[in-house]
Amino acid sequence: MAKPQEKVSFGQRLKQIGMVFQFTAKQDRWFAPLVAAAVLIPLALTVVAVILWSWIWLPLGILFALLAVLIVLNLRSNAAMMNAAEGQPGAAAQIMDNMRGDWRVTPAVSSTTQMDMVHLVIGRPGVILLAEGNPQRVRGLLGQEKRRLAKVIGSAPLHDYVIGQQEGELPIRKLRTTLLRLPRALNGKDVNALDKRLKALTARPQMPKGAIPKNMRPPGASRQSRGR
């Protein structure tokens, strides 16, 4: 199923925009000057238009200024988030989880104690494995996951990437654009069916609820319970 869209009130939306402004201003020293230019240039042109022609240009100028600020905010905040995410464990899964569209993300389906991990993503392009961590170790994890998934994905395409800055690796700032450019090989029904199969594969067994049968109790468990 696609991720449900939660309704956000106008006040919450303004609060979110304010938080994005603060975060971007801390990460990007050019953000404040660019925002100032985005406001002042359209307003200056609006003043000239009002003097030469009519007051009808005033609301249009304000709208243009707001639009310019939103464009600057969108571009610079995305760049700031990518810079902040660089080298952070689990950043690729978080970016994918926040992407628009039908992307089914399972973080860290395979991992090591050294914070190497492989994330599983299912979408219209097929099955995608994203590896983060030491390139030597994560390539081994990738190989294991590819062999395991090959048993259940059938003819669905399988893509794999190692996130990093070295040759042959995918920089995290290019993750979104790279995945959005992949050819759409599956429809919605295919994605749902594939998601169910892979969830069954990656599901971890849970202990049954209720009393533990006698033949499954560890040695000495009954004696300890009687001694209490």
Oligomer: single chain
Report how far the terminal alpha carbons are from each other: 49 Å
**Percent strand:** 5-15%
| Structural category | alpha+beta
Q: List low-confidence stretches.
A: 1-5, 205-228
What does the overall shape look like? elongated
Please write the string of helix (H) and strand (E) elements: HHHHEEEHEHHH
User: In angstroms, what is the radius of gyration?
Assistant: 26 Å
Strand order of the largest sheet: 1-2-3-4
Major β-sheet profile: 4 strands, mixed
Helix content percent band: 40-55%
**Number of helices, where a helix is a run of at least 4 consecutive DSSP H or I residues:** 8
Mean pLDDT: 79
For the secondary structure, the number of strands is 4
Describe this structure in words.
The protein has 228 residues and is α+β, with helices and mostly antiparallel strands. The protein is 52% helix and 12% strand. It is built from 8 helices and 4 strands. The protein has helices at residues 10-27, 31-52, 57-85, 91-97, 135-149, 175-180, 188-202, 221-227, and strands at 104-111, 117-123, 126-132, 158-162. Strands 1-2-3-4 form a 4-stranded mixed beta sheet, sandwiched between helices.
Name some characteristics of this structure.
four-stranded mixed β-sheet, 228 residues, single chain, elongated, 12% strand, disordered C terminus, alpha+beta
